[in-house]
Design brief:
Elements: E1 7-9, H1 12-21, E2 38-40, E3 52-57, E4 66-71, E5 80-85, E6 91-93, E7 100-102, H2 120-131
Antiparallel strand pairs: 1-2, 3-4, 4-5, 6-7
Length: 138
């Protein structure tokens, strides 16, 4: 399944307050924390009635709940919330290789799990960077 393509401007006050207050938050003073200007839904494609979800920050330790930004709609007055949510407990075990992957979405997210969601643009960028065909930085 393809990744949802919903993007929203991050409300600076809400995002900044949450980033500063989360356990394991920034090491520096609050005025050095810069929330991202835009947030991309990380879930698989879903209907218009399902909340979008964008990852903001992990808490410490990494197994602790993470900070997520949730929203619905598209307008400037769209309903949104910032919440610390546990990770989805689902795991994918590859019996042949022994690799275990945990779902990278918040608990109680709509199906499917993160390992079933593909991001063609992200995959293309990663492929180019790994192959050495990335942008010339010299």
């Amino acid at each position: 399944m393809l990744q949802c393509t919903a993007v929203t401007p991050a409300p600076p006050g809400d995002a900044l307050d949450a980033l500063v207050a989360v356990d394991g938050g920034p090491d520096g003073p609050p005025d050095t924390v810069i929330p991202p200007p835009f947030l991309l839904c990380e879930l698989g494609e879903h209907d218009a009635f399902t909340e979008h979800a964008a990852y903001l920050r992990a808490a410490e330790p990494s197994s602790a709940p993470a900070l997520w930004f949730f929203w619905t709609g598209t307008g400037p007055d769209r309903p949104h919330r910032v919440a610390t949510v546990p990770w989805c407990p689902a795991v994918l075990r590859h019996l042949r290789t022994g690799v275990v992957r945990q779902c990278a979405f918040p608990d109680h997210h709509p199906a499917p799990h993160s390992w079933s969601v593909t991001d063609p643009l992200g995959d293309l960028i990663a492929e180019r960077l790994l192959s050495g065909d990335g942008p010339d930085t010299s």
